[in-house]
Amino acid sequence: MEELSFFVGVIGNVVSVLVFLSPVGTFWRIIKHGSTEDFESVPYVCTLLNSSLWTYYGITKPGAYLVATVNGFGILAEAVYVVLFLVYAPRKTKAKTGILVGIIDVGFLAAAILVTRLALEGESRIDAIGFMCAGLNIIMYGSPLAAMKTVVSSKSVEYMPFFLSFFLFLNGGIWAFYAFLEQDIFLGVPNGIGFLLGTAQLLLYAVYSNARPSNNSISQGLLEQGLQK
Hints:
Blueprint (H helix, E strand, L loop, with lengths): L1 H19 L3 H10 L8 H19 L4 H24 L2 H29 L2 H20 L3 H10 L7 H21 L2 H24 L10 H10 L1
């Protein structure tokens, strides 16, 4: 059972790395254009917090080093995205992003670590960190719902990138299975939800993939927004 759990966790790490790298196309475009255009920094700021909390969880819980390693990579990737956003964003957006980073990625994270380290110990500490991680993960997995609504209303999948939906499906399924093997409810619940949402997106893709795409000029921007989320 331990060998199977380790094997599934390694596969989960590989898929998660691909998910973390999915915004590379967006930032290559930002670098080429020298501007963040209409893209938002919030998804990257929140994902940085999410990766930081899961890394803390993986370090705190015995035997959860696979969770810590992949999310450690996530911290590096998201930190690069946030820095690039700060470099190329307009002054007003840059200020907003800096404030968000200070409040969410520095303030909230520091408070969470201090409270759990000073006020809690043992299983209570692990449970508290797990609740925070699971709650934030559920919120983030829910972000594609807007893209799914757009697909249904427009009857076109141009607003929902296939590979992003596929990797969310794969990522959620693998980590939910890993959580089942490890009996980890904090990993299992959010990733189970992610697996179901990914399945729903792939079903929508199958239904609307042959529909005639819209010529709406904002389609490419929405596509990139889907990638960054």
